[in-house]
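If you are new to this repository, start here. Below is one unmodified record pulled from the training split, so you can see the exact layout before writing a loader.
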Amino acid sequence: MKIRRMRRPVLTAGLAALTLVLPATGLHAQAAARSAARSTVQSAAQPAVQRLPLGDANLPETRTTTQVAPGVTWTRIKRGRPDARDHWTIEVALLKDESAARSLAARLDDAGFEPVVSRVDERPQDLPSKKPWGWRVRVGELADQESAARLVKDLRAAGFRPTHTYFTGEDGTGRTGPWVVDVLRVSAAQRNRVQVRQSLDRVPGGETLADIVKHMGGIAGINGSYGSDEEDGTFGDVAGLSVVGGKLVSEAVQGTSALVLPSDRRARPSVQQLSTNLRLRSADGAQRELDGLNRSPGKIRNCGGTGGDVPTERPRHDVLCTDDSEVIQYTDFFYGPTHAGDGVAVVIDKNGKVLEVRDRRGGTFPSGTTLLAGTGDGADWLRAHARKGQVVNVTATVLDRNGRLLTDTAGRAMDVASGGPQLLRNGRVDIPADTEGFNYPDDPGFFDYFSTHRHPRSLAGVTDDGSLLFVAVDGRRPGYSSGLSFRESAEVMRSLGAVNALNLDGGGSTTMVVGGRLINRPSDNTGPRLMANALIIH
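And here is the target side for that same chain:
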């Protein structure tokens, strides 16, 4: 999934830059800029720049703004400083029950370790309660990651199963950072420059962000939606909703957030919780659900499907749900042989007429046609209602949270990039982490790790005037940048002017390209990851 080269962050040559230094003693920025840059980014030099709401109020903060194109700016914000008190530590478990946590701590103590038990209160915003979220059991205050790795081996040798190795500056409670935040702002007048683009213009496959921007002829970009990998059967398939140029490429993880980019200049971009409604209707009147698009039948990354998926039809982030009775449509976005196996494959033309019926799944299909692949009950339905010469109509619609039609994907063109969870709604912090699948009912540690700890984050937002904000926050790099929690991400987006915002794929996928150069520091030691899609500025 990853490439081995890593590009060094550089300021793109030829782009004018202006630096703001926000002193620790005041809220007003003093501009220190090159004279050549002042005319191109004068708006960035206005006083009363709102400081990032991260850590202690008196932390140093600098901003450098670069004019990328008319109406498009890139701002690099550096805030905070390392804290000598931060250290590496090992989390052995986060348990819902205090007595279970105390019992685990006693066993660790008996084995010669020195455990610390602490109460965890932050919980999903959409699961309010006065009860603690859980009880954390940790071991160690270590100076470096190598020492932490040795302690993990010792814990495992003693029969324990540690869950995470943490640098405490990434706990979500550290007060000094540091943080490095890159912001692309696209004015409302220029927002039609932004498009969702599929890697290689097809499924399967993947590219680095720099390669997507290059082959799309873009000037900048940020990574997009969560993706699937080889274990899911379809590398490069978006794990959620994807609409490119009005064409539905991937079905929704039902009810999760997405950025909607209308092609109509009069319509505003938006952040919405969306679902898809996919149906098959035979000329003989029989109807059936169409389970998904451009992916391996039976494998639903991040769950959130319909029709009996196991273990759940609710969104469940980073979980692979299964279903042994599906019908999947391969569209003109799919390239190469389809997934082979037991079942039925049916080739239909653009009018839905059945051209070919195969008694096994797999193979390619001619240009201008699509292929329906069925397994289990889905295969039985195709055998009965998609015989050669019959017509099978496919309908695909996108619905908002109230069940209203967002777009007929065969009609008006728009782009949609899914993510999640939502961060801001109408200017308020609104993070439905449970609803959007970032809480495992049987494991409080997943929400704690994914949501409340700091990680590299990629974020997208819409301002009150319809401008677009794309933000990449580096993380997992002690001493350079600590990353953000979900709540910190929401507060940062609000401070930058967003009124609606969502989280995109992050972690090792967080990448931003400006002027053909990778300008952030991806957290994987192997360099930038290959990704399914991206948000490209042309």
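Two things worth knowing about this chain: Confidence is low (pLDDT under 50) at residues 1-14, 23-47. DSSP finds seven helices and 36 strands in the chain.
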